[in-house]
Amino acid sequence: MSAIQKIIFEDFPLRNGVVQSNIMLSYQLFGQPIGTAPLVLVNHALTGNSQVTGENGWWKSLIGENKTIDTNKCTILAFNIPGNGYQDEENQVENYKDFTTYDIANLFWKGIDSLKIIQVFAVIGGSLGGSIAWEMAFIRPNTIENLIPVATSWKASDWLIGNVLIQDLILNNSKNPIHDARIHAMLLYRTPESFQKKFNSKLQNENGMFQVESWLLHHGEKLQNRFQLSGYKLMNHLLKTTNCFKPLNQSDVLRSLTSNIHLVSVDSDYFFTANEIKTAFLEIKTEKNNVFYHEIKSIHGHDAFLMEYEQLNTILTPIFN
């Protein structure tokens, strides 16, 4: 496993004017040494981390030796969003409402600069990680060759903002906040059809508990055992802060982007809907020719970007070949 490395920034200004002192950015590198191969930045989602490949890698079906994103041919860089708690419980962020996806994107660029990286072959991320990828592209429109936001959008929808509010209320008011928030979130990440196919209303035991209830309780306990409350509050809050055009003109920003843009949606996703991603594609298409729309077909909703590996590999293979 690639060792976690750390960079400390003593004074980091946030978009709202707050100066964050001693913010730590941790990261992992996989594959080829920096400067010897195309650099691929992988941004993790809400409950993810920098371990993107290897035995415990959350995207190991996509990234690794002889995989679609091949560690024999690429340098893979993955940052941890500060406060996500991965192997560092001390790096907590209490003032979570001061942060936005813009700030995380800006921090990632500072990390890239610290590593003396000049050009980025691709930035890919799913869900929250994809929103941060969008922000990174707009901060430096000439640095990313291929921008690949998966199951995400460049602006938080009202539906998403509403659900973030519910999650925040649970996290701040429940007696069992991470556990209960995760159970609610799992209902957003899947679909009724996905649940029905998986459980079919079957009982788990003679006590009358349904399999779906047991499964949801298990996911609540699992996340509770590995996530800090402050980290979950931050990750949830970040979801609603994405607005890549604030305070910029959309047409001007899009025209300035040199990246090839590959938008990937899931047809059954109602967290970041296929319709809003398709709408973004059509808006970009009026300003740029090198934009492409791809759609994963699945009954599993938002989580399909972590489940439908064959479809995602098919979409990404031409880009990384």
Automatic annotation (TrEMBL):
Transmembrane segments: none
Key words of the record: Hydrolase, Transferase
Record-annotated AB hydrolase-1 domain positions: 38-152
Keyword Lyase found: no
GO MF term list: hydrolase activity
Organism domain of life: Bacteria
Name of the molecule in the record: Alpha/beta fold hydrolase
Source organism of this protein record: Flavobacterium ardleyense
